[in-house]
Amino acid sequence: MVQHHSLPxxxxxxxxxxxxEGLREAISHARPRQLQKPVQLRRQATPPEGLRYALVSFWExxxxxxxxxxxxxxxxxxxWKAQPAALEQAVLTYETAPPVLQKPSLxxxxxxxxxxxxxYQRLExxxxxxxxLLSLRNHAEVLKTWAEVQAELxxxxxxxxxxxQVLLQSVGAQLERPDALLASLRHDYAFxxxxxxxxxxxxxSGFYYEQAREFPLFFTDTxxxxxxRLEVAEPTAAGQARLRASGNLDAQxxxxxxxxxxxxxxxxxxxxxxPPTAPFALSGTYEASFDLNPDTGWPVTVEASVIxxxxxxxxxxxxxxxxxxxxx
Length: 328
Hints:
Blueprint: E1 11-12, E2 25-28, E3 51-63, E4 66-83, E5 86-96, E6 100-102, H1 108-116, E7 122-127, E8 133-136, H2 139-157, H3 162-175, H4 178-184, H5 189-194, E9 207-219, E10 222-233, E11 241-248, H6 256-269, E12 282-292, E13 299-310, E14 314-324
Antiparallel strand pairs: 1-2, 2-9, 3-4, 3-14, 4-5, 4-6, 5-7, 7-8, 9-10, 10-11, 11-12, 12-13, 13-14
């Protein structure tokens, strides 16, 4: 936990020792007019039926006025139970209903990806209270589902086309090792925002908490990096806590040359002609808000947006909103 002593009203926090691994760097700033209660979250056991969340998310790409948007709706249920024999561990059960993809027409690849989503329909994971994923408990169950998915993929396509072959080989190799499957969850932005890294330290008014934040494979083979700044915000409802995050594109960590080529490829795919994108013309913004139940430690609502722009002619955005559903 970061300890706060006597600090100036503005400026970087003096740190006599290197910050503990996994903690955000605390930076003091001018005190807000209204101090909020400190936020220190601890996940409590979920009800027997779990916590259900409705997710609405979309990807949107704009090229010189041409707009492509894909919206995904799904319901996610979380179960969290401490292990009596190991108080420093708990079992997370992550269940997803089949996603609904809203788009005028689906490509063969998109149909295949919807089918592959069933691999994540139920995951049992050993995790620490702070949220570190340790091991997959139901690997055999996932492999059984994969065998069914394989058979359906081959039935649909005959199994000889390049897309199916690539999916069969790459997904099959990933599923051989449980740790590789767990690592793949970092590519699922919905999982990352519903399972945020907000449980390692105490957050107080008058401080920004900074860290590098990656959005893996925001483009086909390129991640976007931001310098995330987190702060305690005024709650939107009585009895809740609110944390707000924001950031701008981190040009040092992001491969801007590759991103620029991806933008050019988007114009080509849209049948549009445009001058080559200059890496220095790229910009990006990231915003997120977390409304939380401080008694249970769980999110009530989460909203986030990640945008990359190339001047006024191009933008690509990912947006999501989670809302906890009433108990049935």
